[in-house]
Write a structure and sequence with these properties.
Elements lengths: L3 E3 L6 E4 L2 E3 L5 E7 L12 H14 L3 E10 L2 E11 L6 E10 L4 E9 L6 H10 L1 H4 L31 H12 L4 E2 L1 H4 L40
Antiparallel strand pairs: 1-9, 2-3, 3-4, 4-8, 5-6, 6-7, 7-8
Length: 229
């Protein structure tokens, strides 16, 4: 099941429901989670949200390259660009995604790609240009973001034009192209917005009884084949 009813699939071929690949090895996928989103902060507090996400990703042994808030299909969403170690330890996988949260569910659009046989070339060339003193920097989302994969300047978008075939460049560009074309199911867009779970009030007995949350949508139709699927 997915709440995404349309998006531009130019260059991608469907491999299974909700999963597409292209000739460069990019994997595009869409997901629906019938669970309360576990985002650690509201989307209208992006600094707090980025900081918490960066700490969580680092604790998992990965690295948050970028995060930010925007819109997907007219709804508030949060983007995360993450790097993780390949399971075999050879190189990295880059994952760029949008999460569109609602009160009790969410949908995700994700593009990912891994390094091939040659790894570390982008990092080595950027290190040579900027020097070791400028290469590794504190994480921009907080000095207490430590552990996981290190933050360095070679992951910056300003280097993408010089490394057009790098998987980081490609996933970043693919998601940026696809995002404006995403159309969401009307039942999903009409759901109550996402609100993070708050600490209990000091006097809960004085609080008015909350109305029961709305049920999540149950669209039965898979994503329609896109413009060039």
């Amino acid at each position: 099941m997915t709440v995404i009813t349309d998006m531009d699939l130019t260059g991608f071929t469907e491999r299974e429901p909700g999963v597409w690949t292209d000739e460069r090895g990019l994997v595009l996928s869409v997901h629906f989670f019938d669970l309360v989103p576990d985002l650690p902060a509201p989307l209208d507090r992006p600094g707090e949200l980025r900081h918490a996400l960066a700490r969580s990703v680092a604790a998992a042994g990965a690295g948050l390259i970028e995060a930010g808030c925007g819109e997907v299909g007219s709804l508030p969403a949060v983007r995360q660009l993450v790097k993780v170690r390949r399971p075999d330890g050879h190189g990295q996988v880059f994952i760029d995604s949008w999460t569109v949260p609602r009160a009790r569910c969410s949908t995700v659009v994700k593009v990912q790609a891994g390094e091939g046989a040659m790894t570390g070339l982008r990092e080595a060339l950027v290190l040579d240009r900027v020097g070791p003193d400028r290469y590794f920097t504190p994480h921009p989302y907080g000095p207490d973001v430590t552990g996981g994969l290190p933050h360095h300047v070679a992951d910056g978008e300003e280097w993408d034009a010089q490394f057009p075939d790098h998987p980081l460049t490609q996933v970043r560009a693919a998601l940026a192209r696809i995002t404006p074309t995403v159309v969401l199911h009307d039942g999903f867009t009409s759901l109550p917005p996402f609100v993070p779970v708050a600490a209990p009030a000091a006097a809960p007995e004085a609080a008015p009884e909350a109305a029961p949350p709305a049920e999540p949508p149950a669209p039965r139709r898979w994503f329609r084949r896109g413009r060039n699927a």
